[in-house]
Amino acid sequence: xxxxxxxxxxxxxxxxxxxxxxxxxxxxxxxxxxxxxxxxxxxxxxxxxxxxxxxxxxxxxxxxxxxxxxxxxxxxxxxxxxxxxxxxxxxxxxxxxxxxxxxxxxxxxxxxxxxxxxxxxxxxxxxxxxxxxxxxxxxxxxxxxxxxxxxxxxxxxxxxxxxxxxxxxxxxxxxxxxxxxxxxxxx
Length: 187
Description:
There is one protein chain. The chain has one domain (3-186): Cyclic phosphodiesterase (Cyclic Phosphodiesterase, Chain: A, Alpha-Beta Complex), CATH 3.90.1140. Helices cover 27% and strands 41% of the residues. It has helices at residues 15-22, 54-68, 102-118, 143-152; strands spanning 3-10, 31-33, 40-49, 73-84, 89-96, 131-137, 156-162, 164-173, 176-186. The chain has a five-stranded antiparallel β-sheet with strand order 2-6-5-4-7. A hairpin with a 2-residue loop joins strand 8 (164-173) and strand 9 (176-186). Helix 2 crosses helix 3.
């Protein structure tokens, strides 16, 4: 049976700050908040993967960390954004402040992308934007509230020392996904 896998940088220790940002969206029609304890930046979504490939993936991630040249670094999280656009919102996210870890996260993404595509995983079909999803929009009932908040507020989420990337498993359930760390790879 295949496991649904992805590679991430987890926002450990920022749960309370993320929850505080999410409070701006309490009760917004059509918006479903994510679990702040599971906040992460997805470096690469691998999808349904044969469990027998996990060791090879971990080896590839170790190589990707080496290829990236990224050592442990500080990242600062804040600001709000949406995908795909303010006129059609499906995801609300917090981002990385300019010059505060985005270059390192992008270098990690690019190295992970190169190594996993070489293993036969599908290449990304969109530009990488380091972000952590904090809500998903199921319908446009509260779209204007979300638009106003994203345009007019610039919350601080906090700083995080990034020392590893993680291979994670996502198990889909009735209350949304649950994530489990399969393996960690130190920077």
